Amino acid sequence: MSRLSPAQFRSRFPILARRIYVNSCSQGALSTDVEASMRAYVDSWHDGGSPWELWVEQVERLRTAFAASIGADRDEIAVLPSASAGINAVASAMDFGGARSHVALGEFEFPTMAQVWLAQQRRGATIRWARASGDRLPVDAYEAVVDARTLIIPATHVCFRNGHRTDIAALTALGHARGAYVFLDDYQRTGAGPIDVHALGIDFMVTGCLKYLLAAAGVAFLYVRRDLIERLEPAITGWFGRINPFAFRIDALDWSPTASRFESGTPPVPNAYAALGALELLDRIGYDAVGRQVAQLVERYRSAVHASGFVARTPAEADARGPLVVIQSHDAPALVSRLASRGIVASCRGNGLRVSFHAYNNEADVDAVVGALEAESALLERAAARSF
Ligand SMILES: Cc1ncc(COP(=O)(O)O)c(C=O)c1O
Fold first, then answer.
1. Hey, which bits of the chain come out as E strands?
2. Residue 112 CA, ligand 1 centroid: distance in Å
3. CA 173 – ligand 1 centroid, Å
4. Ligand 1 atom closest to residue 109's alpha carbon, by position in its atom list
């Protein structure tokens, strides 16, 4: 396998010849590699008609490749159609009837993470909120709500709304010291830099392929720490959660000894092809190289935004942010359209303009976005204007 430089990596994304693409926080750009993988799926369907053995094998290759990319073992990975499916499977395996029935939720979660746990209130869960101060959610905010009654702490790594990055190592140390599970939602960071789930010590993690993992919607992953797998029996289940789905038994509920017990129905085969193409491409540049490139671009953009006097909602400290930087607009949807008319693809949540970087971006992209923001500055909040 030959290594790719950032410039070679960039050349595999045709959209970058036409647009400035800074919206990986929403959808990663399409590479020629992923396009070829999707075509391989179509060809396999044309050629074989119903080559299920090949398709199931492809899903297994994906499981192996993803596990290697996050420092996990393949048996610790469930391949799922969405992150929500993984969160639901874990929540449905939890027992809220014992001494621990509290779920500690931070205010920066993606809605689905909060909603699945809110739905567990009917099953006896109590939600304890770790409150943010403005755009900050320090681990101290969890200190106040995590105690001997806490069962689990679901926590997003990077917030989709403001780009704040939580110190997951510190949160895991806190949770484990107090006997609670820690469940990481890494969707807004996986693929944008290295991660090692064993070194972090987290209990569960969900993520999906359509953002920084550079593939299509419809495939996601759940990591479950090995020693927890056989202790948990999800109530949301199905034939792919069995020891051998192809035994077709209707009179017994055996549990796969691996994390595939958290799966339920037929795997997302077309999306698995796309995801495998993307993981193989990311492997060729390497997650350390991706992380370095993203960090440099984020720093360049964050400093330029500051120098222009715009109001950044994402923390300035490198260890408190990820690949996404959010700045405050008066009318972010209008700003997104203005940027689109200048060939820049970005997105917003509320009045926060989201600009996010991957290794396929370069310094010229950053400078073009900053130039466009200067030109559209009437739509942006200025730091001075915010102080009263
Ligand atoms: C942090 C985070 N979690 C989860 C999701 C989505 O999860 P799902 O695959 O269930 O749609 C997103 C998507 O935007 C996200 O940003």
1. 20-21, 77-80, 102-106, 126-130, 150-156, 181-185, 204-208, 220-224, 324-328, 344-345, 347-349, 352-356
2. 7
3. 25
4. 1
* Torsion sign (Cα): 238, 240, 246, 247: negative
Cβ neighbours of residue 144 closer than 8 Å, sequence gap 6 or more: 130
| Model confidence pTM above 0.85 | yes
Taking the centre of ligand 1 as the mean of its atom positions, its distance from the CA of residue 375, in whole angstroms, is 32
Ligand 1: nearest atom to the Cα of 25? 16
Two tokens at 169? 């190592």
Say how many Å lie between the CA of residue 223 and the centre of ligand 1: 15
pLDDT one-digit tens code per residue, 327-348: 999 999 999 999 999 999 999 9
- In angstroms, the CA 342 to CA 113 distance is 35
pLDDT, tens digit, 9 for 90 and up, residues 352-369: 999 999 999 999 999 999
Mutate which of 112, 168, 207 for ligand 1 pocket (most atoms within 8 A of beta carbon)? 112
Query: Measured in Å, how far apart are the chain's first and last C-alpha atoms?
Result: 57
Alpha-carbon dihedral 103, 108, 111, 113, rounded to 10 degrees: -40
Distance 22 CA to ligand 1 centre (A): 18
Q: Which residues line ligand 1 (CB under 6 A)?
A: 82-84, 110, 112, 156, 160, 185, 187-188, 208, 220
Structure tokens at 117: 């746990």
- Alpha-carbon distances of 203 from 115, 165, 208, rounded to whole Å: 20, 19, 17
Greatest Cα pair distance in the chain = 69
